[in-house]
Write a structure and sequence with these properties.
The complex is a heterodimer of chains A (115) and B (111).
Chain A: E1 4-7, E2 10-13, E3 19-25, E4 31-37, E5 43-51, E6 54-57, E7 64-66, E8 76-78, E9 87-94, E10 105-106, E11 110-114
Chain B: E1 9-13, E2 18-23, E3 31-38, E4 45-50, E5 55-56, E6 61-64, E7 70-75, E8 84-92, E9 105-110
Parallel strand pairs in B: 1-9
Antiparallel strand pairs in B: 2-7, 3-4, 3-8, 5-6, 6-7, 8-9
The chains are: A mainly beta (115), B mainly beta (111).
Chain lengths: 115, 111
């Protein structure tokens, strides 16, 4: 059971470049989200989706774009990378229903450096 | 979601029980207590959750006070691999909103 899979694990970008962080889950979860975590800080929500075709902004959405064409995939796009976007990015999913809907499964993280 | 308060850091000797406290004095009747942990450089990991009764699984035990205003996560025999940041989150079961991770407690298990 793969769970939540993120790619790439490491990436270096130049300022102004664009790229997509991939996220896939095989648990048929409705709810998926992207967080970023800066050194010594907690997780901050970027964007989330409650189901295919539905996305919404989180706490820090600027500079990022998402889409949810299938239940399994939730890619995060950096439109024009900036050094302030250097961070670790985590994708997460949960079933979204019932008490266990708050059991979140996280990917292993993607380390992004923008120079 | 009710606010939680956790100590910023704790130490524990390897092999001993680690007891991590969490205060949630404004918890309401339909809110559950969830615990997650984040080992360095990894994504957060679900540990356990509970409503009123004490809960135990293969990872930990959760003790919730009778008035539900505080709880304690117990790692019965801490190992070096349990060194992590532990997050206590209070939330309505099945809520559709987003989980908010605070700063948690940094547990250091020492040999």
């Amino acid at each position: 059971n793969a769970g939540v899979t993120q790619t790439p694990k490491f990436q270096v970008l130049k300022t102004g470049q664009s790229m997509t962080l991939q996220c896939a889950q095989d648990m048929n979860h409705e709810y998926m989200s992207w967080y970023r975590q800066d050194p010594g800080m907690g997780l901050r929500l970027i964007h989330y989706s409650v189901g295919a075709g539905i996305t919404d902004q989180g706490e820090v959405p600027n500079g990022y774009n998402v889409s949810r064409s299938t239940t399994e995939d939730f890619p995060l796009r950096l439109l024009s990378a900036a050094p302030s976007q250097t961070s670790v990015y985590f994708c997460a999913s949960r079933s979204g229903t019932g008490v266990t809907g708050n059991t979140i499964y996280f990917g292993e993280g993607s380390w992004l450096t923008v120079v | 979601d009710a606010k939680t308060t956790q100590p910023p850091s704790m130490d524990c000797a390897e092999g001993r029980a680690a007891n991590l406290p969490c205060n949630h004095s404004t918890i309401s009747g339909n809110e559950y207590v969830y615990w997650y942990r984040q080992i360095h450089s990894q994504g957060p990991q679900y540990i356990i959750h509970g409503l009123k009764n004490n809960e135990t699984n293969e990872m930990a035990s959760l003790i919730i006070t009778e008035d539900r205003k505080s709880s304690t996560l117990i790692l019965p025999h801490a190992t070096l691999r349990d060194t992590a940041v532990y997050y206590c989150i209070v939330r309505v079961g099945g809520s559709q909103g987003n989980l908010i991770f605070g700063k948690g407690t940094k547990l250091s298990v020492k040999p």
